[in-house]
From TrEMBL:
It comes from the Bacteria. The keyword ATP-binding does not apply. The keyword rRNA processing does not apply. PROSITE patterns: CN_HYDROLASE. This is N-carbamoyl-D-amino-acid hydrolase. It comes from Oceanibaculum pacificum.
Length: 301
C-alpha cells in the first residue's frame, strides 16, 4: 500500500472585503485540523486567497492586479508554507498569478512536505466571457482577467506517487483527465468556484450543478483509474452563492468522502495509490485497448 492521507479543505465564502491574511488564518485552522487527523497532504480550492473576483467587472488594470500574487510564497502566504513544512504536510492551493513578464494566469501549485514548490499548473479551460454581458444574471469574467494556461497537464512524481492538477472548469473536460491518465496519474488535485445557479438558465440550480460536479469528477476518476479530489470554495460571497460538494473519489469512480456544508470543512481520507493499479492494468490499460486511429478529430480544429 502507498497511502496518502489527503485532507480536502473546503473553504466557505470569502467576501470581497476579506483580507488575504484573514483567509490564510482560516486555511491554517483547517491545516491544524488536518494534522490532528493524520493528513500528509492538504488541498485547498481555486483562487483560495480571495473572493471569486472574476464576478466583478473592472476596467482599471491596477484594480485588477490587486487580486493577483506577484510571487509565491509572499508575505501573506508564507505562514502556510511554514506550517505545512513544520507538519511535514504536502499542500496544494490555487491563486491568481501575475508573472514578472506581466502575464495573468489562474494557477495552482503543489508543494511537497519540505516546503518546496514541485509543481505549477495554469488553468487551461477558462469559462465565461471577456466583456460586460447584460444578458447574464451575474458576470463570469475569467476570459477578461486571465490568459489560457501554457503548462498543459503535466504530472509530478512526489510524495511517493504521480500527481496531477487541474482547476475548476477543467474538470468538465474528459481530455483533462485523459492527458494526465496517459502519463499514469494516480491522484488528480483540483479546486473550484462554481456558482450555484446558471447565469443564463434560471432553471439550473444547485442540485443540477452538484450533480454535474460529481458526474465529471467520478467519470474522470473511473475512466483513468485514478484518485480525484475536488475541493470547493462554497457559500454566499457578497450575495453570489457557490456550490459546496467537495469530494474525494476513488479509482473506481466511487465517492469516499463528500462535504455536507457550505463552510470551511475538512474531509480526510487515507488514499491508497496502489488502488489505481488494477484498473490501469485491465480495462483501462491504454496501451492495449485504445484505438487512436479513430481519435484524430479530438485534436483537429
Ligand atoms: N471557476 C470556474 O471555472 N467556474 C466554472 C463556472 C462555469 S459557468 C461560467 C465551472 O465550470 O464550474
Amino acid at each position: 500500500m502507498r497511502i496518502v492521507t489527503l485532507a480536502a479543505a473546503q473553504l466557505g465564502p470569502i467576501q470581497r472585503a476579506e483580507s488575504r491574511q484573514h483567509v490564510v488564518a482560516r486555511m491554517l485552522e483547517l491545516m491544524d485540523q488536518a494534522k490532528a487527523k493524520g493528513a500528509t497532504m492538504i488541498l485547498y480550492p481555486e483562487l483560495a486567497l480571495t473572493t471569486f473576483f472574476p464576478r466583478w467587472y473592472m476596467e482599471d488594470q491596477a484594480e485588477v492586479d490587486a487580486w493577483f500574487e506577484r510571487e509565491m510564497p509572499n508575505a501573506a502566504t508564507l505562514p502556510l508554507f511554514e506550517r505545512a513544512k513544520e507538519y511535514g504536510m504536502a499542500m496544494s492551493f490555487g491563486y491568481a498569478e501575475l508573472t514578472p513578464e506581466g502575464r495573468h494566469f489562474n494557477t495552482c501549485i503543489l508543494v511537497d512536505r519540505t516546503g518546496k514548490i514541485v509543481g505549477k499548473y495554469r488553468k487551461t479551460h477558462l469559462p465565461g466571457h471577456s466583456e460586460f454581458d447584460t444578458s447574464r444574471a451575474f458576470q463570469h469574467l475569467e476570459k477578461r482577467y486571465f490568459e489560457p494556461g501554457d503548462t498543459g497537464f503535466p504530472v509530478w512524481r512526489t510524495e511517493g506517487g504521480l500527481f496531477g492538477m487541474c482547476i475548476c472548469n477543467d474538470r468538465r473536460w474528459p481530455e483533462t483527465y485523459r492527458v494526465m491518465g496517459l502519463q499514469g496519474v494516480e491522484m488528480v488535485l483540483l479546486g473550484y468556484n462554481t456558482p450555484s445557479v446558471n447565469s443564463q438558465k434560471a432553471d439550473e440550480g444547485p442540485e443540477k450543478r452538484l450533480f454535474h460536479n460529481r458526474l465529471s469528477v467520478q467519470a474522470g476518476a473511473y475512466q483513468n483509474s485514478t484518485w480525484v479530489a475536488a475541493v470547493a470554495k462554497a457559500g454566499n460571497e457578497d450575495g453570489f452563492p457557490l456550490i459546496g460538494g467537495s469530494l474525494i473519489v476513488d479509482p473506481n469512480g466511487e465517492i469516499v468522502a463528500e462535504a455536507t456544508t457550505e463552510d470551511d470543512e475538512l474531509l480526510v481520507h487515507a488514499c491508497d495509490l496502489d488502488a489505481t493499479k488494477f484498473g490501469k492494468a485491465t480495462i483501462f490499460d491504454f496501451a492495449r485497448h485504445r484505438r487512436i486511429e479513430h481519435y484524430g478529430r479530438i485534436t483537429a480544429q
